[in-house]
Amino acid sequence: MLRQSGPRKLRSIIESYALKCMKGRMSKNEICLILNWRNIVGAEIAECTKPRKISYAQNINTGVLHLTVANGSKALEIQHMISLIIERITIFFGYKAVYSIKIKQESVDYFTIQDNLST
Fold first, then answer.
1. Facing residues of 23 across strands?
2. Which residues pair with 7 in a beta bridge?
3. Contact, 64 vs 100, CB < 8 A?
4. For residue 54, which of 9, 38, 63, 103 is within the disulfide window of CB 3.0 to 4.6 Å?
5. Of the candidates 63, 73, 56, 59, which has an alpha carbon nearest to the alpha carbon of residue 100?
6. Which whole-number Å values give the CA distances from 66 to 25, 26, 31, 98, 99, in the listed order?
7. Hey, is 90 helix, strand or coil?
8. Could you write out the DSSP letters of every residue in 3-43?
C-alpha cells in the first residue's frame, strides 16, 4: 500500500528530524519539551527560562527537569511557579513526565550566546 503524501506541518517535520539526529543522546520527551517550551509554559516564563535535560531514575518514566533561569529574581519567581510548570508539562504530555524541577541560574549573556549559536 502506498503512503499518503501531502503537506505536513513544519513542526512535525522538525520534530521527526530532531528525533533521528539526537537518538541516543536525548529522549523523545526532552526533544518535545525543548521544541514546544514556549507553548507549554507560556511566553512570560519561556522568556527567562530554558529547559536543559530531564534526568530519569532507573525503571521510572518520570524525571527531574533541569531548568536554566536568566537571573536571581526570576529564579525566585520560577521557584514559586514550579507546581504550575509541572502541571502544564503534565497536561502537554498527558502523563506526569516530570515530578520535580531543579533550577540553575545563568547570566543573561549565556542566553544570548546560546541563541546566537543556534541560529
1. 26
2. none
3. yes
4. 63
5. 63
6. 16, 13, 13, 10, 11
7. helix
8. PP-----HHHHHHHHHHHHTBTTB-HHHHHHHHTHHHHH-H
Q: What are phi and psi of 82, to 5 degrees?
A: -55, -45
Residue 13, all three cell numbers: 517535520
Contacts of 73 (CB under 8 A, 6+ apart): none
The model carries a pTM of 0.71
CA dist 41 and 111 (Å) reads: 18
DSSP SS3 for 67: strand
Take residue 110 and report the three cell numbers written for it.
549565556
What's the pLDDT tens digit per position in 24-80? 677 778 888 888 899 999 999 998 899 988 888 877 778 899 999 988 888 899 999
Spatial separation of the C-alpha atoms in residues 53 and 57, rounded to whole Å? 13
Distance in angstroms between the alpha carbons of the first and the last residue of the chain: 40
